[in-house]
Amino acid sequence: MASTAGKVIKCRAAVAWEAGKPLVIEEVEVAPPQHNEVRLKILFTSLCHTDVYFWEAKGQTPMFPRIFGHEAGGIVESVGEGVTDLQPGDHVLPVFTGECRECRHCKSEESNMCDLLRINTDRGAMIHDGKTRFSKNGQPIYHFLGTSTFSEYTVVHVGCVAKINPAAPLDKVCVLSCGICTGFGATVNVAKPPKGSSVAIFGLGAVGLAAAEGARVSGAARIIGVDLNPSRFEEAKKFGVNEFVNPKDYDKPVQEVIAEMTDGGVDRSVECTGSIQAMISAFECVHDGWGVAVLVGVPNKDDAFKTHPMNFLNERTLKGTFYGNYKPRTDLPGVVEMYMNKELEVEKFITHSVSFSEINKAFEYMLEGKSIRCIIRMEE
Ligand SMILES: [Zn+2]
Ligand SMILES: [Zn+2]
């Protein structure tokens, strides 16, 4: 057992004191893990749009002070009571959604939407006792997505921790915690493009590029990137995108443009923008008879999906997915193995890297649209 087990750990954390204000590196106290919890030493973390969205806190109930961060790799420091399948020293990826292995969803082969540990952006404390494990001078600091990885140590529910191959480099595979698996899984687990097929990807951000990577790995012949920003196309080629459509270049709906390019429609499409118009286009651009569209992007609260029902009668299928249909504890170790076997390429997602003390730079890179993923090195 580590000498720190059962004790409060003082360490550095990047605290968001107010919405939209730079994070401040503070010395915080991290309480020991309680029932079904583990305390992790985070070695690498990366920044995802979801962190930025909740840090900006426009249109949501603000919850501050808070420690953000949910894509990360680390090592188990100590485990709480009731934890049997993890031990100090295990290499792990914390995940913003969980797998309790006891609820109906976890017992179903078809679902990854755990009743107990499904993503909850409004929860700022641990499920076990409703308290935070972070504090500074006695003031509680809220958790984020049950992970709070912008801290040298964090406490996470055991159901939100995937144990991985200790040979996997944590500074690379940490990006598999969220966005990359979301896009990649949407293609390989849900859209399932046959070899030689055509796939349209709407939105060429990190998730869309991961969806394209899934199409590339599946052996799709035509991967059509759809984005309003033409500067994304050059980068997207590395992910297998070999044709590009900018809806702004046409005076007709993009689904018609794609149907003309592909003799009636693509075999598969994956929507990664969250724009309701893009969702409708993604569905209406698939071929009748066999086409499948998969929605990944998160829509606005008041959006409604409108299409003619004939599109369904003509045997097009519309699906949606959460976290690429991966069960975090069961499936993530296998995704890491895909990387280790050089099937899935992860390095090309990592465009920047900063030390922990420079974490605010990672926010700048993302807000300027410069980075796909920026790794934050916790030990520097
Ligand atoms: Zn994320
Ligand atoms: Zn469950």
Automatic annotation (TrEMBL):
CC terms in the record's Gene Ontology section: cytosol
Domain of life according to the entry: Eukaryota
Keyword set, alphabetical order: Cytoplasm, Metal-binding, NAD, Oxidoreductase, Zinc
Known EC number: 1.1.1.1
Domain Alcohol dehydrogenase-like N-terminal: 35-164
Sequence intervals crossing the membrane: none
Record InterPro entries: ADH-like_C (IPR013149), ADH-like_N (IPR013154), ADH_Zn_CS (IPR002328), GroES-like_sf (IPR011032), NAD(P)-bd_dom_sf (IPR036291)
Coiled-coil segments: none
Pfam family, one: ADH_zinc_N
Gene3D superfamilies: Medium-chain alcohol dehydrogenases, catalytic domain (3.90.180.10), NAD(P)-binding Rossmann-like Domain (3.40.50.720)
Cofactors: Zn(2+)
Known partners and oligomeric status: Homodimer.
Family: Belongs to the zinc-containing alcohol dehydrogenase family.
Name of the protein this chain belongs to: Alcohol dehydrogenase
